Amino acid sequence: MERVIDKVALVTGGARGIGAAVAARLHGEGARVVIGDVLDGEGEETAQRIGSGTVYVHLDVTSPQDWQHAVDAAVGTFGGLDILVNNAGIADFAPIEEYTLERWNTVIAVNLTGTFNGIKAAIPALKQSRGGSIVNISSVAGMRGYEQLPAYTASKFGVRGLTKSAALDLGPHRIRVNSVHPGVISTPMTAGIAVDMSHVALGRIGHPGEVADLVLYLASDESSFVTGAEFVIDGGDTAGTVTRPAP
């Protein structure tokens, strides 16, 4: 299938995990893809693995200059920009009484301000394309609180709100903006973290490809009347608690 044929996408945090899965899925459906990340070695390898029509650029999402370089790479290499996926993010665990301002600022800078920077940088190119789709990867932590994740939770709530505000501002330009809220997904970020999913309806963690399928829908014209919305993909985690029968 060619659900995003002839479209150009920029995916941040695309070297591995959800970002790499999104880049591969969009490419497989006809898009040309710019992968942005700070993990240069892994990013180059991912671009090579995906194949022709994919390029890697170094992109620190806290840097407006890096963002401009990435957008210029999309326009200069592939002729425009139609899809932006703000996926780059970090987490830092500690109770709030132990959380330093420095740690707080670092997480907010990447997860929230980085998303803001990306939207700002992409707008001119998306306008030139006469529309487009911005997909912001938030989290179920943007829907409810989590202990020992004050900055991460705040940043993901912020991405959810920013998405709605940007959707209102950019709708007249036919630029759609939506947020995706994954639950626990098997990625390098969650590796080594013991997670009990027995209380979750589907009883398992998710896979990056499942998130990529949702992003593909939002990036494609199939979602042409969808903007300012939030899409939870968590196996039923936020729906409630399942009590499993005793063995």
Main sheet specs: 7 strands, parallel
Low-confidence stretches: none
Number of helices: 6
Class from helix and strand fractions: alpha/beta
Per the CATH scheme, the topology name is: Rossmann fold
Distance between the termini: 44 Å
Shape: globular
Our estimate of the beta-strand percent is 15-25%
Element order: H for helix, E for strand: EHEHEHEHEHEHE
**Mean residue pLDDT:** 96
**CATH superfamily descriptor:** NAD(P)-binding Rossmann-like Domain
User: What quaternary form is this?
Assistant: single chain
Helix proportion: 40-55%
Major sheet strand order: 3-2-1-4-5-6-7
CATH class: Alpha Beta
**What CATH architecture do you see?**
3-Layer(aba) Sandwich
Number of spatially distinct domains: 1
> Radius of gyration, Cα only, in angstroms?
17 Å
Say how many strands there are.
Answer: 7
Write up this protein.
The protein is α/β, with parallel strands linked by helices and 247 residues long. It has a single domain (8-235), classed as NAD(P)-binding Rossmann-like Domain (Rossmann fold, 3-Layer(aba) Sandwich). 40% of the residues lie in helices and 15% in strands. It has 6 helices and 7 strands, in the order E-H-E-H-E-H-E-H-E-H-E-H-E. The chain has a 7-stranded parallel β-sheet, sandwiched between helices. The protein is globular, with a radius of gyration of 17 Å. The mean pLDDT is 96.
